[in-house]
Fold this sequence. Notes:
Layout: H1 2-8, H2 19-22, E1 27-31, H3 43-60, E2 65-74, H4 85-90, E3 95-101, E4 113-122, H5 129-136, E5 144-147, E6 153-157, E7 160-164, H6 168-177
Antiparallel strand pairs: 1-7, 2-4, 2-5, 3-4, 6-7
Helix pairs in contact: 3-5
Amino acid sequence: xxxxxxxxxxxxxxxxxxxxxxxxxxxxxxxxxxxxxxxxxxxxxxxxxxxxxxxxxxxxxxxxxxxxxxxxxxxxxxxxxxxxxxxxxxxxxxxxxxxxxxxxxxxxxxxxxxxxxxxxxxxxxxxxxxxxxxxxxxxxxxxxxxxxxxxxxxxxxxxxxxxxxxxxxxxxxxxxxxxxxxxxxxxxx
Length: 189
């Protein structure tokens, strides 16, 4: 998977929060709730959050299998099993993919390592409810969803999702389909 990532996304390691900065011409952000509200307060709003995620993911066409990448953070490059129980709960079959150091110039005493875990799951419209709710509640971050060929990337965050598409034209078409879900800010954030 590392080789495929490097072929498809050579300008950016798999740090979900870096993607929009490295691929701005192919990036669009959708907000999860009307009026750019960040967090759901009730089940009706969670329904809107999940509905928007599943609508976009279905339009992207993941195929029969969805790749799910989740993260943990450690103070050393060594992985620590189940250090973050919530990540293990929402991605129980994930296996360690790689360890990344976000800032190699940082003082070694304060370095933080990102442990990436990956799994594939059968795609269906409720396959990742628990994961998306954990992200929406800010219990989980740095998640990347993608088809197994990595042709597009979907990064849900607490408040919405960043989508990175293969071309600017595909980005523009998806953006036009969901204008009401876009930020009112010129930056798109």
